[in-house]
Amino acid sequence: MKLAKDISVAAFAVAIAVAAVVKPTQAALVNYDFTVNATSGDRPGQYFGSFRYDDSTLTAIGEENLGVSNGLSIVFDYLGTQYTEASDFDYPSSPVVSFTNGNLSGLSYLVEDRFLIGNDPGNPNRGGTKFYSILSADLLSTTEVGAVTYSKSTSVPEPMTLGGIAIASAMAFGMKPKRLSKVTN
Question: Could you tell me which of 33, 97, 118, 156 has the fewest CB atoms within 10 Å of its CB?
Answer without folding.
Answer: 156
